[in-house]
Specification:
about 80 residues, TATA-Binding Protein, 2 helices, globular
């Protein structure tokens, strides 16, 4: 079993990113990896486990991309 722990210091945006990505936790496309996510003291914590290194890499890439998109959307300003 392979594991990785990632911690993102997002301040008050951590909870917003968590809430936006929470539905994705139940829609994981692979049965070969598992993702747990939590928010603690302004940090978004991501813990990924996978059966093999290939699955781990795929899961890490997917979740990094999702977090980046969620954070970019929070920083987007909409003008009328």
């Amino acid at each position: 079993m392979h594991t990785v722990f990632l911690e993102f210091e997002l301040g008050d945006r951590s909870a917003k990113v968590y809430e936006s990505l929470k539905p994705e936790l139940g829609a994981v496309p692979s049965e070969r990896s598992k993702v747990d996510m939590s928010v603690q003291e302004g940090r978004l914590n991501l813990f990924i486990t996978a059966e093999d290194i290939i699955s781990l890499r795929a899961a890490v890439n997917t979740w990094l991309r999702l977090i980046k998109i969620a954070e970019e959307m929070l920083n987007t300003k909409v003008t009328p």
